[in-house]
Design a protein that fits this description.
This protein is of the alpha/beta class and 471 residues long. The protein is built from 15 helices and 18 strands. The longest helix has 22 residues.
């Protein structure tokens, strides 16, 4: 096999190295380097990972792990000087100043001692930053290779950082500066449905009103060691009463949002959709899932996975408008809406393709406003620029969608399930079109998902209150 250029790696043997010989390596510290080092080492010191903590600390910023510089010494010794066949024996480093994201280190290793009896080499090591200021120095001793080694270069695997906590903080930042809202939580009688609103309360998003059997709620709190101090509990006997009482709080007492606890979606929505005592608005009620997907460059909204089973064309128009309105509230200008189907061709045997074309026509006539619609589009053409280019689809939406509109509840549910469980999406869920936003999550959803959903409800409530406030 022929290897040319930089496709192979080779060493320098003990006999080839003289005292005074040296080598250098330059690297710039990235956020990903800090995250990977923390993941590999288990060192989750908040100095390295928590921006808020770091700002209040000694260095006023996130700093890298000190031993990151030490790993660069190891990289030189193991890959270049001496290179393959080198065995680390010992090291002794001094760390003189912190390294922050964006700092560029130049690592130098210089042979200072040779020991013939055991073929050991001692190297003086030094690291300076982009300003020439010393960051680290010390020494390293290795057992040097005695025979020439030349091997094909094996490249490391590509690694993508899926920082769920960072995505969580970014979603919560949508509500920075907004005061908490009151939210009625219907039957929070299991661990996650109780932990979610309590975590959202600690975060400053909501003031929860827990509606359900007092004894069951307190038993869950005691079992999970959750603090109910200062939290109001409205005692009702069962799930149906909890749903009705929670809806009444929103309808009659100005509570700003409704949240599903451990009761069924059907039980809650029965109370919401009651013609005489519910929370119906002027538009069709629909559900939107908000997905933060590591592999996608922006938030992705998917609708409708929870309320409308097989929506008609007119119902889809409301579903699309609800999703566009939410995207705009979240700061997306001219949201790009992909109307999903199995193909881009309009096929009379595939109603989803016909509905997509009709919805685009509705948007052109002003029936749907505030977004850019395209369809029918298959899923890959909606989210992948490469797939859209291969098919020569010319649309500002193709490959760049903000909103995915599924043809029915099954397609939407499968889509969000794949995003969450195969693509590690951080999800939130909200019901729109009612008189108040409704946090609607599944029983399997974590407290983190419920907290983000509360943030979306808080954002919607304050936007709606601003729009309806008298001038």
């Amino acid at each position: 096999m022929n290897h040319s250029g930089d496709s192979f790696i080779q060493n320098r043997t003990f006999d080839e190295i003289e005292v005074g010989d040296s080598a250098q390596l330059t690297r710039t510290l990235r956020t990903a380097d800090i995250q990977l080092f923390a993941a590999i080492s288990g060192d989750i010191n908040p100095t390295h990972l928590d921006p808020e903590f770091a700002q209040s600390g000694q260095f006023r910023d996130i700093v890298g792990h000190s031993l990151w510089g030490g790993t660069l010494v190891s990289a030189i010794l193991g890959t270049e000087f001496p290179g393959p066949g080198t065995v680390y024996v010992s090291q002794n480093f001094n760390f003189w100043r912190p390294v922050t994201v964006g700092d560029t280190l130049t690592i130098s290793v210089t042979c200072s001692e040779k020991h013939e009896h055991n073929h050991h080499l001692v190297f003086a090591c030094k690291a300076v930053n982009q300003s020439g200021v010393k960051v680290m120095d010390g020494s390293a001793e290795v057992a040097a290779p005695t025979q020439r080694i030349r091997r094909p270069k094996v490249l490391p695997p590509e690694i993508k950082i899926a920082d769920r906590e960072e995505r969580f903080r970014r979603l919560l930042s949508l509500t920075d500066g907004l005061p908490p809202i009151r939210i009625a939580v219907a039957s929070p009688c299991d661990a996650e449905s109780l932990r979610g609103p309590l975590q959202a309360a600690v975060t400053g998003l909501v003031t929860p009103l827990l509606v359900g059997p007092d004894r069951r709620i307190r038993a869950v709190a005691e079992e999970q060691m959750l603090d109910l101090n200062g939290i109001r509990i409205i005692n009702v006997p069962d799930d149906r009463a909890a749903a009705e009482a929670s809806v009444a709080l929103c309808r009659d007492e100005g509570v700003g949002a409704l949240m599903k606890g451990s009761l069924s979606t059907r039980e809650l929505m029965r109370a919401v959709l009651s013609k005489s005592a519910g929370l119906r608005g002027a538009r069709r009620i629909s559900h939107v899932s908000i997905a933060s997907v590591p592999a996608y460059p922006k938030l992705l909204l998917v609708t409708d996975a929870a309320i409308n089973i097989a929506p008609t064309l007119e119902e889809k128009a409301d579903i699309v408008q609800n999703a566009i309105d939410l995207a705009r509230i979240m700061g997306v200008v001219d949201p790009r809406v992909a109307l999903l189907a199995a193909t881009e061709a309009i096929n009379p045997k595939m109603p989803a393709t016909q509905d997509a074309a009709a919805l685009c026509d509705m948007a052109a006539r002003g029936r749907i406003q505030g977004g850019l619609l395209a369809g029918p589009l298959s899923f890959d053409k909606a989210v992948s620029p490469r797939a859209a280019n291969i098919k020569d689809i010319r649309s500002p939406v193709a490959g760049n969608a903000d909103i995915l509109v599924a043809p029915d509840i099954e397609a939407a549910n499968i889509t969000i399930g794949q995003l969450e469980y195969l693509a590690d999406a951080l999800m939130a869920g909200i019901v729109l079109g009612a008189r108040v936003p409704i946090v609607l999550t599944t029983r399997a959803d974590t407290a983190q998902t419920r907290t983000v959903s509360c943030a979306i409800a808080q954002l919607i409530h304050h936007h709606n209150s601003k729009e309806t406030r008298p001038t």
